[in-house]
Amino acid sequence: MIRGQWTISNALSLSRILLLVPISLLLLQDDPSKRWFVLALIIVTAMTDMFDGILARRFNQVTEFGKVIDPLADKTGIVVIGFILLLQHKIPLWFFIAVFLRDALILLGGLYLQRKKGITLPSNTTGKWAAAVMTVYLILSFLNLESLNEITTILLALSTLLLVLSFALYLRRFFTVMEVNKL
């Protein structure tokens, strides 16, 4: 990593990726007796997501690496957990495909801008909301509690809406940057 890029907030973002290993292993076991431990790990992961941004802004440690690793950790977590839940038939295939394609296209667009002009676009607010709502949806899908089926269905619809809206905003920003910088 580039000197000066190693910050507490970047370490927290990296820890989210590392926490995916035990979360994934436990999710794959699909053992109801470990459900609450998995939930605790997911909550810890979500807390690191919240604190990394707060710390970066509070201590003026926003870095180019952080602009990449933070959303990458979010996207990786959602896709990995979503894939496991898809395998367990807890989320619909169309939703997983939509999430995967959106995130892959955003990642590829970001890499293109970085390589062509050295521009790293930070996440947008709608994208952060989409990630937060999807996380709650995935948690409720994982818990698979019949008493929460209605809420889970509402969160699936809201996640889908935010996915589409955030992707449209990312596209608009991508094309605006391309036009302004004549890529």
Task: Describe the protein in words.
By secondary structure, the protein is an all-alpha fold. It has a single domain, classed as Four Helix Bundle (Hemerythrin (Met), subunit A). 80% of the residues lie in helices and 0% in strands. The two termini are 28 Å apart. The mean pLDDT is 89.
Q: What's the total count of β strands?
A: 0
Strand content: under 5%
Low-confidence stretches: none
CATH architecture: Up-down Bundle
**Overall pLDDT level:** 89
Gap between N and C termini, in Å?
28 Å
Q: How do you describe this structure in short?
A:
The chain is an all-alpha fold.
Highlighted features:
single chain, 183 residues, mainly alpha, Four Helix Bundle (Hemerythrin (Met), subunit A), 6 helices, 0% strand
Write the layout of secondary structure elements.
Layout: H1 8-29, H2 35-58, H3 64-87, H4 93-117, H5 125-143, H6 149-180
Helix pairs in contact: 1-2, 1-3, 2-5, 3-4, 3-5, 4-6, 5-6
